Amino acid sequence: MKNISISMFILICLLLCILGIDKVLGLNMRASLRTATNPFYVMHIGELVIFYILIMMMFVRPFLDFYHKRKGNK
After folding, report:
1. Where are the domains of the chain?
2. Where exactly are the transmembrane stretches of this chain (predicted)?
3. Using CB atoms within 10 A of its CB, is residue 35 exposed (0-12), middle (13-18) or buried (19+)?
4. For residues 52 and 40, is the Cβ–Cβ distance under 8 A?
5. Which pTM was predicted?
6. Which one-letter DSSP state was computed for residue 74?
7. Which percentage of the chain shows pLDDT scores above 90?
């Protein structure tokens, strides 16, 4: 329970920091909340490509290991 409460406290602090920075930059509250809750709105193409490559590496590697292990058992 302590870990969850610490994680929630850190999340709230970081979200407040993000909202404060967006307010200083001159964004209204709606745009600030949208960028804070969905970071894909503010990502550039290069960042999205790297993100998708990392996600694919996370899923493809275990699948290939499972496939090679299963193929080796036959």
Report:
1. 1-42, 43-74
2. 42-64
3. middle
4. no
5. 0.54
6. -
7. 34
